[in-house]
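Researcher: Structure for this, please.
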Amino acid sequence: MGAQGWVQHFAQWGYADWFRLVVGAVEVIGGVLLLIPRLATIGAFGIVVIMAGATYTHIFRASDEAERAVFTLVLLVLAATIGYVRRHRSSIGRGTQ
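Model: Predicted structure, token format:
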């Protein structure tokens, strides 16, 4: 789906066009941060927030898309798991404080 499709979806869901850009930026930045072990928890948190919003949107703002909420919940859990595991791994070498 091209950018025009996302413009239409965000409008249909009742979100401003600038919000689409913020969501996209957080997704990209979060994905990049996941690749940096010390920053992976921050990246995962950003993706978790976006996926929580996506789940809300599919359930409450687009009643005909409620089944898509399962996919966004799976992504939310995966991002949270990655963030948790990376947080644990990055603290191993630093000792306990």
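Researcher: Any notable elements?
Model: Helices lie at 3-12, 17-34, 40-61, 69-92. The chain is about 75% helix and 0% strand.
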